[in-house]
């Protein structure tokens, strides 16, 4: 949603395709070097293209750093700790430019921490498939928050 508002949907979609390819690989599909290479290259400069006058820039740029963690993890010889993605998720949530009321608090960071805790539990109980289903539901909640920012 932020990428759409910033006029960057095509570029963001390339990054998202790379992340989706990594997720599919966790389900047994082959990594697509072309998709990953394009995603990595686009992600490298995408944050600089976000217009300063739009709200959510810090959140957007930190989100791209999360995508970078995912994409870099697929590159031979690169070392990146998956925990870094979790840390960046909390940083991104803390950077959200508006107060958000959720079941777990008044900040997006509270919501993100609760999401991470629920994700751990879901992964243990139901494996990767259950985790992806939860992630989709959580993404919908994030999308609704973004819609409120521009309402």
Descriptive keywords:
mainly alpha, single chain
N- to C-terminal distance: 12 Å
What gyration radius follows from the Cα positions, in whole Å? 15 Å
Principal-axes geometry comes out as globular
Mean pLDDT: 87
One letter per element, helices H and strands E, the order comes to HHHHHH
Largest sheet, described in full?
none
Quantity of strands, as a count: 0
Count the DSSP helices.
Answer: 6
Low-confidence stretches: none
Beta content: under 5%
Please outline the helices and strands.
Layout: H1 2-5, H2 9-26, H3 33-46, H4 57-72, H5 82-94, H6 108-149
Could you characterize what this model shows?
This protein is mostly helical. It has one domain. It has helices spanning 2-5, 9-26, 33-46, 57-72, 82-94, 108-149. Helix 2 crosses helix 3 and helix 5 (82-94) packs across helix 6. The longest helix is centred in the C-terminal third of the chain and has 42 residues, at 108-149.
Task: Give a brief description.
This protein has 151 residues and is mainly alpha-helical. It has helices at residues 2-5, 9-26, 33-46, 57-72, 82-94, 108-149.
């Amino acid at each position: 949603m932020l990428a759409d508002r910033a006029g960057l949907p095509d570029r963001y979609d390339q990054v998202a395709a790379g992340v989706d390819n990594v997720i599919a690989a966790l389900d047994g599909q082959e990594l697509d070097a072309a998709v990953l290479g394009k995603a990595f290259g686009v992600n490298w400069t995408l944050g600089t293209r976000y217009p300063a006058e739009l709200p959510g820039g810090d959140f957007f740029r930190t989100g791209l750093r999360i995508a970078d963690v995912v994409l870099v993890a697929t590159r031979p010889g690169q070392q990146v700790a998956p925990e870094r993605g979790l840390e960046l998720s909390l940083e991104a949530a803390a950077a959200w430019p508006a107060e958000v009321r959720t079941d777990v608090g008044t900040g997006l960071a509270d919501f993100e921490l609760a999401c991470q805790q629920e994700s751990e539990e879901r992964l243990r109980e139901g494996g990767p498939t259950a985790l992806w289903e939860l992630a989709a539901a959580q993404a919908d909640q994030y999308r609704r928050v973004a819609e409120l920012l521009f309402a």
